[in-house]
Fold each of these.
Amino acid sequence: MSSASQKSPWETLSREQREKLFPTLTAAQIARVAAHGKRRQASAGEVLVEQGDYNLPFVVVISGALELVRNTDTGEELVVVYTAGNFLGDVTMLSSRRSLMRARMRDAGEIIEIDRRSLQAVVQSDAELGDIFMRAFVLRRIELIAHGLGDAVLLGSSNSAGTLRIREFLSRNGHPYSYIDLDHDSGVQEVLDRFHVDARDVPILICQGKLVLRNPTTEQVADCLGFNAGIDPGHLRDVVIVGAGPAGLSSAVYAASEGLSTLVMETTAPGGQAGSSSKIENYLGFPTGISGQELAGRAYIQAQKFGAEMMIARRAVRLTCDHKPYMVEMDDGMRFAARTVIIATGAQYRKLPVENLSRFEGTGVYYGATSIEAQLCGREEVVVIGGGNSAGQAAVFLSGTAGHVHILIRSEALASTMSRYLIRRIEENPAITLHTNTEMAALEGDGQLERVQWRNKQTGKIEERSIRHVFVMTGANPNTQWLNGCAAQDKQGFLKTGSALTPEDLASARWPHSRAPYLFETSLPGVFAVGDVRSGNTKRIASAVGEGSIAISFVHQVLHE
Ligand SMILES: Cc1cc2nc3c(=O)[nH]c(=O)nc-3n(C[C@H](O)[C@H](O)[C@H](O)COP(=O)(O)OP(=O)(O)OC[C@H]3O[C@@H](n4cnc5c(N)ncnc54)[C@H](O)[C@@H]3O)c2cc1C
């Protein structure tokens, strides 16, 4: 099918939107780009990038026309035509992922070609061009996602947890895909027949129009879409960062922007716990709040802009810490050598064993009690679950504003788990009621939490209340099992760093230096812990981001030792 006769999906965009997506460089800007690349003639029909290629060149059109097309089930589809002054590319140019489209000269002309490294140099050194390219790349990716113009088709059902898992994985990784809902799309049988799959296999992912995966793991999805294919395990990195939550992403941005070779490895998708927050209202600079996914998405692109490599859907399972360079081993057996390591694997809040919990997280179920949550509760009654000091502090704090605070604990009394002063404040406070031997039995509501039920474990009696705010303060478990005791930990397993390390900790770790450990340095020289995984950390996004950046300044010192 001739692409000339087709309509581009961007035709509905306004002129202003098109100019932002497909800007035209001036002669002076083209000259600055040309200094980094190769200027050459290209003939009509020449394919500059094949769909599925890795290490794509960045191309500026000087004359002639370049068309971007994609292969679909029904043939070739035109995406856009670039003419003089336009440039080819989206965020894939900055990562080592493969191209979602084919780029082919439509009319012969002159082009400038630049490789990925030189493009990164332009973006980092030329602020004006950097802004133009990054804005266009990000907006193009947003449009691809909005139009589902990727190399993946997901067949799923809204009643399947696997479908939700893969949809979340793809969108948190910023990967465009088309979605066909088997519950609602009547023409779907034809697609199922063509790929010889059954609706019972959902979710089904079709990669690049050929490979069919039935209910795949996130690792299989990442492999199929080539997320990690360009990452070379063969060379020694200045810093390997484990975990891409706010702490890991912040370390990645600072490390890569300061010229360190940087690899980030992440079990699921960038963003960590913050990625699941629907609206973060207390992060500096976002007065109207920002979703965790948006914050993470921006940080992810920012880290890649500076050249950080991102390994997705891979779990670090071991740190070889008895010799240098350190080795981080992944679940697929790959090993990465590192001069320094940043551990940013966070913690997992202990969850309530209650159905529907995830539906209400952030919309009635909270894991922290700050003045923001207090404002959300207003004068309404609230529930605090947990018998530790954090639960006690939250209850006392919330009692200042909430209508009434109910503390639920599963044990007989608070004495063994909470400080005496907090117990006294709770006992003396008429705005707080302690329910012992009690556990949460159900959360109910349509979209927002509306009602809760709690059960007395001794009598079995269930009580239902119209309460819309529940604070889960049952503690968190650090993601440190994979370290196998390599670095000193506190009683709960959080990593001890800097001045929190005792002489005994250092002696048993055979600390080799005359200097004391740096801020955020663990008992292993050159291995740092930042964010929620660190003992004594304040469990906030801003602290995680701050610690991630500070650690990099000490990484430089270690690298110079
Ligand atoms: C629902 C919710 C809402 C929140 N809202 C707010 C808020 O509004 N404001 C605020 O300040 N704080 C909020 N917090 C707290 C905040 O999200 C955390 O303090 C912050 O995310 C900690 O960042 P981190 O990078 O240290 O760890 P995490 O965010 O936990 O990230 C750790 C990352 O490491 C990865 N990982 C773990 N183990 C491995 C491994 N072995 N190999 C590779 N990767 C691994 C995980 O998949 C994860 O992506 C919220 C938390 C939750 C759960």
Amino acid sequence: MHKLLTLIAATSLALLPNTPLAAQSASRATLVRAGRLLDPRTGNVLAPAAVLIEDGKIKQIGAQISAPNGAKIVDLGSATLLPGLIDSHAHLFLNIVIPPDEERKRHLNAFFAPADLLAIVESPTKRAFVGAQNAREDLESGITAVRILGHSGIDGDTELRDAINAGRVTGPRILAAGRKLITRGDYLQNLNPALADAIMQQEFLFIDGADRARAAVRQNVFQNVDVIKVTASENMTVVELTAAIEEAHRQHLKVAVHAAEKAAIQTAIDAGADSIEHGNEATDEQLRQMRDKGIFLDLTPTAYGGFFLKIMEPSIVVSAETRSARAESSARRDKEYDQLVQRVLKSGVKFAAGTDMCWWYPGKTCGEASVATLLNLRLAGMRALDVIRAITVNAAEMLGWQDKIGAIEPGKFADLVAVAGDPVTDVTELERVRFVMKNGEVVRNDLAFQSSLRGGPGNKPTRQD
Ligand SMILES: [Zn+2]
């Protein structure tokens, strides 16, 4: 049974490039030319640069490549090419509007819980469309792969992944975690006791004890997930988490463990997590243990720079009291985050980055908000090249897709973005991505309208600024 499911999962991955969309262009080669190409792994720049693509994959890279007969040529002028961006931690099926003060006072976990509950109990069809919209917006902003770590209902993320791979909707490559594994008492509280379990089970799998932990992993495997997500709170034991991780590894799946506080981080380290999500309170000793065990830290600079006030103010009246409390805690947390980033860089622990995007962000699409969130790492003191590594080559390794994405190298999928300037001197260039290609197909091209006209309808910009 398990072997069969693993085989099915492996087959569905292998089928990724064979989507109907890709099939239409499979016989066609594409040559992308640009002024520069940045290799995030080394920091080297190739100038000028050409990338030859066949069957959705990168075939050759060089300063000058002559176009094969019948190849489509995409000339991006002086732009800089780099690998498509990867969001390693997202929740595309949530779009939380922060409730006002009085509403928040009535709930534990009040920023999150009311909207999470609504998302769970409202129509799953409605929720699916929210997920599809967010996926499209991510891709349009240059995010060509997203790891969705929970809050997708029972099968929202696996179905969205399959719909994208089948060419039914437009979106990035998706790694889907299915339902989050949690212990009782996390997330939603104050539910009607008669309905609580029925509601919770639409979104979560409980792991009370090692056997339930193994069963929960198998339940997700049955849904054909790509990764297991566990939230480690202080309630979770090392024995429970170890059982979940052992079972996941037996099924060849990696385990991403949400752990923000020191005790939970230690539980995740001791149980052998593949990545620790957030990790805000990690001590230097814990970072050293993670480095020695090869555990990735997935940084999520979501709340950096007064994020919550920014998303609250346009929609609700914020009391003076809340405003000053948030401003104060925000400044304090930013300083702590600056220190975390420096300690992470010093420790030598492997790191990637995710957005934890699940919030409604006024004035920005999901993709625009997500890229801006990832770039908070630069504000927190990380060099631009390290920020770019965290969301390309490092992220690909953390996801276990280092042979597929994260770099512009022969054999990898042709997932590329281009910006007008130099993202190493100004990383905010990534907020102004001008060209997006996924699987060898042009998703967006604001740079080369002339050549896109010659190139046919596949080159048409999907969104113009
Ligand atoms: Zn999250």
